[in-house]
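Below is a complete specimen:
___
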Amino acid sequence: MTLLDAAILGLVEGITEYLPVSSTGHLILTSALLGLDGAGIDAFNIVIQGGAILAVLGLYRVRVLGMAKGLIGQNPEGRRLLVRLLIAFAPAALLGPLLDDTIEATLFQPVPVLAALGIGGVIMLKLGKGRADPSDTDPADLPLRAALLIGLAQCIAMWPGTSRSMVTLAAGVALGLRPARAAEFSFLLGLPTLGGACVYKLLKDGDTVLALGTPSLLVGMVVATVSAAFAVRWLVGFLTNRGLAPFGWYRLGLTVVVATAWASGWIELGASPADATTAP
């Protein structure tokens, strides 16, 4: 991996992590287009999510500090928010380590990623129609049952190409939240979810990640941090004004373009579509 490769992957990670377009799917497709493959690349793409975590920690430092104070009984609102995030995080914390090897072996490939991108696009378009009277409920006051449902929905995003942001946003909107409020809860839920994934991957595949070079890892994380900070600030305003539908069209468009280019032999993403449909 060159430093340019690392910077490109960091930019893709930072821009797409909190957008409902699937950062993992974009990273898998980008890695394939750059000619990068192997377990080390998959692990690298997960570890640089740490940059996205740092971005949210900086942008939502008041919320994070409030949760920290809530732990010692000095901030009731922060304590309520922390409880809801822990409830939402629990399903992924339980299922993630159990399914990690199976998911990497079967789903970290272009065909499953393209399928998930397309299906997610349809869901975004359906939810993009909006509700007549969405709630302006603060994430700290989200019903506990709703927090659990969002957490269960988040587990669907273990399928790369689905998008953690998409399923948590979609679940929040389906439960009656305004898109911007659902996005805020999704951002904060990403702190334990992405943080846990990074730590787990470092403990499991740390040697393969470091073999790619410490400078590459640092470049990827720095670029991811800066680009994620810009993406988060932009997304909140965009969702307030435009809603979810544009992301649905983007996902469907990307699926058609990449699938067509791959089927025509214009780009290489591993096995051809014909091989993928006939493989045992």
In short: Residues 271-280 have pLDDT under 50 and may be disordered. The CA atoms of residues 114 and 255 lie 6 Å apart. Residues 3-275 form one domain. The chain has one domain: 3-275.
